[in-house]
Amino acid sequence: MSGTADPKSAREHARAQGGTRVETMPVLPPVADDLPEDVAAEDLVWEETVAPGGYTSRRIARGTRLRLIDKAGDACASLNIFNAEMPSERLNVADTVKVQWTAYLGAGKLLLSDMGRVLATILGDEAGTHDTFCGVSNAASNARKYGEGRNSGAYPNGRDRLILGAAKHGLTRRDVHPCVNLFKGTRIEPDGTITPIIGPFVPGREVLLRAEMDVIVVIANCPHVLDPRPEWTSTPLRVTAWRGPVTPEQDTLRNAMPEGQRAFLNTEDYFRR
After folding, report:
1. How far is C-alpha 212 from the geometric centre of its chain's CA atoms?
2. Which residues are within 8 A (CB) of 130 and not within 5 positions of it... i.e. 6 or more apart?
3. Enclosing domain of residue 97
4. Do the Cβ atoms of 44 and 35 come closer than 8 Å?
5. How many structural domains does the chain have?
6. Is residue 28 part of a domain?
7. What is the residue-wise DSSP string for the chain?
């Protein structure tokens, strides 16, 4: 008989796990020793490392800075964003691309909602390899490629991980929308074909976002759907967030282009209601 078959033994075993720390877990209360110099420790609101094949989600306030770090050079952060007060408003990848006249995300680019507002701004980007075209893997695509794609299997897929993260906030499968993939890129060739830019890359690349609304962030860390490698490959993704000021009217990125100015005006009008 297993040592945990008896309820008392099971309780003792469970309590003995208290204080156990592993790399891939939330840190509660959040602690980080590499915050920017102008960020106070008490403003830290989120510190977590997402395992390969893992997911995470959190509601964060307007003005919050969200830093993602590709710790070992092979993470893929598939990102969904929702308006936390009205989740029917969410990231619109098509508008994010066409309104800004570019298919390639980087520092200074905005992540736009389907209502013409700014959900987040990319403040910093050490990666330069992101994808706005391909979305995420699903159970069927993983089964074809790896022989297994279930959530509970050895090769979890990005869509089911996003569904789990969204469910933490009362959202359902139908709420999971096309995402952006950070740290794994694509290039559109002159003939229209898509070339994946997968790496692995130098460890430690960072992307810094600023929340322009109160948002729900959902992140899956699964291999890119066009990863050409036959092995299911992913590495840990670190997530850190801290409180910050709301974007002022004179902000350089807010005023970088007229389309962005309009999206910020739409956002500010929302908060006047």
Report:
1. 15
2. 104, 105, 106, 180, 181, 182, 183, 184, 185
3. 45-245+253-271
4. yes
5. 1
6. no
7. --TTSSHHHHHHHHHHTTT---SSSB-SS---S---TTS-GGGEEEEEEEPTT-EEEEEE-TT-EEEEEESSS---EEEEEEESS-TTSBB-HHHHHHHTT-S---TT-EEEBTTS-EEEEEEEES---EESSS----HHHHHHHHS---TTSSS--HHHHHHHHHHTTT--GGG----EEESSEEEE-TTS-EEEE-----TTEEEEEEESS-EEEEEEE---TT---SS-----EEEEEE--PPPPTT-TTTTSSHHHHHHHHHHHHHHT-
Query: Tens of pLDDT along 163-200?
Result: 999 999 999 999 999 999 999 999 999 999 999 999 99
Provide the token pair at 248.
């002022």
Token pair in block for residue 41: 């420790």
**Would residue 29 count as lying in a domain?**
no
Question: Does residue 128 belong to any structural domain of this protein?
Answer: yes
Q: Is residue 37 part of a domain?
A: no
State residue 4's pLDDT score: 66
pTM equals 0.93
